[in-house]
Amino acid sequence: MSSSSQRPLITVVGASSKQGRSVATALLASGRYRVRALSRRADSAPMRHLAEQGAEIVTVALELGRQAEFTAAMRGSHGAFLMTPPTTPMPPPGQPELALGRELADAACAAGVQHVVWSGLENVEERTGGCKWAPHFTEKARVEAHIRTLSLRSTFIYLAFFYSNFLEYYVPRRGADGSLTFAIYLPPDVPMPFVDPLTAAGPAVLEIFDHPEQYAGKALPVIGEILTARQMVDTFARVAGQKAQYASAYSRDALLRHFPAFGTSEYVVRELVGMVEYAVEYGYYAPQRDLEWSRKIDPGALTWAQFLKRSEWYGQPMSYGA
Ligand SMILES: NC(=O)c1ccc[n+]([C@@H]2O[C@H](COP(=O)([O-])OP(=O)(O)OC[C@H]3O[C@@H](n4cnc5c(N)ncnc54)[C@H](OP(=O)(O)O)[C@@H]3O)[C@@H](O)[C@H]2O)c1
């Protein structure tokens, strides 16, 4: 292990998030990097844990209008992992995620960062000729396009759907007979890529910073397993030893019937429907992407069954403690 001052410093934005936490932990555990972890609060459980692992904690909120703070926070860093938090979509022409992503990227450039890894997604607007509206994909892709114009090295990771969506946002409901109904935003038999961001983002970003030239300009999917909604439910039933069934929340009506709370924001509903229709009709990833890469460089990437066993999840709502 090199002495502390010789190890490159990597700033991790959103360090308490599932992805950010994974990245910071993997970089620190490698012994090859120092980590500066950015968060709104230093006292949350994930941030305290990162501090115990040796991260330098800097308090700055991941929100628009803080470019000068981002620049100051990234100064002296060799690299930066940049991401955006879950963002409520705005009616066009508002692009809140694009605006935040640009500020982060410009701050990295101004701070003299040499290599940025951006957590992005495909450009749905471009891939569908404007037929589907999924701003949290397209705005990330626009940030990527902006980063590519900057004079720094850049690499892009595209995380699959999170397994944790079912623990945090689309929690299954227990019926009177004790069985669980998974209302899933996908049709039953269409294979889709899924991932555990908490364990998969880190190994991908570590591999990229370890081989910067090899990955310059690359856009890389990060996947744990490709499986159908029905396979997810059947696997849950087997692993958790519970009776469980699939119900469709794929259409707008079905989504709102199962999750009426989404109906409080028309733009959230439009985005959710646009996103899943995009993924089903066009594919979550563009055809040229390498769907094997992340599982090659990280053979321990969790399948859904492994994720269920590791998280000891039996259908209850779970929070990730940020
Ligand atoms: N869900 C999916 O299937 C999926 C798939 C691919 C990509 N994504 C993308 O992944 C990103 C989210 O990643 P994640 O799930 O790892 O994040 P997360 O666990 O939800 O954490 C987000 C972090 O951002 C901060 N944060 C949350 N709300 C904020 C706000 N309103 N203002 C400022 N900071 C806020 C919090 O950190 P502090 O309080 O510590 O500051 C929090 O720890 C989103 O951009 C999403 O589009 C999601």
UniProtKB/TrEMBL annotation:
Boundaries of every NmrA-like domain copy: 9-304
Annotated InterPro entries: NAD(P)-bd_dom_sf (IPR036291), NmrA-like (IPR008030), NmrA-like_oxidored (IPR051164)
Which keywords, in A-to-Z order, does the entry hold? NADP
Q: Give the record's family classification.
A: Belongs to the NmrA-type oxidoreductase family.
This protein's name: Uncharacterized protein YbjT (DUF2867 family)
